[in-house]
From TrEMBL:
Phylogenetic lineage: Bacteria, Bacillati, Actinomycetota, Acidimicrobiia, Acidimicrobiales
Name assigned to this protein: Rhodanese-like domain-containing protein
Molecular function (Gene Ontology), one example: thiosulfate-cyanide sulfurtransferase activity
Positions in coiled-coil regions: none
InterPro entries: GlpE_sulfurtransferase, Rhodanese-like_dom, Rhodanese-like_dom_sf, Thiosulphate_STrfase_CS
Family annotation (SMART domains): RHOD (SM00450)
Species, as recorded: Iamia majanohamensis
């Protein structure tokens, strides 16, 4: 299934507008620094927790560099979710100078 992908600049605009973001990295990665507002659902839990992903509107899926998030996005798209992969992932977000939040909470 073809899942659309956006660059960090486009994602930053959508995130600033309040678009939902799902981070599929492992908890230790997430707690070390994540996009503000991102909900943690590790890749290995996506299938079991798909009902936690918003079904009304576009959801952006992010990981460290874009590989795991693409796998998660493909799975979610197969379930009918409107998902977009964030190309470059959290590393590109940080490299572009955007802020991150540390710890287990989304904000």
């Amino acid at each position: 299934m073809d899942v659309p992908e956006v660059d960090i600049a486009t994602f930053a605009e959508r995130q600033a507008e309040g678009a939902p973001v799902v981070d599929v990295r492992e908890p230790d990665e997430y707690e070390g620094g994540h996009v503000p507002g991102a909900t943690l659902i590790p890749l290995g839990e996506v299938a079991d927790r798909a009902d936690e992903v918003p079904s009304d509107g576009t959801v952006y899926v992010i990981c460290a560099r874009g590989g795991r998030s693409m796998k998660a996005a493909e799975h979610l798209a197969g379930l009918g979710r409107d998902v977009v992969n964030v190309g470059g992932g959290t590393m590109a977000w940080v490299d572009a100078g955007h802020p991150t939040v540390s710890g287990p909470d989304p904000r």
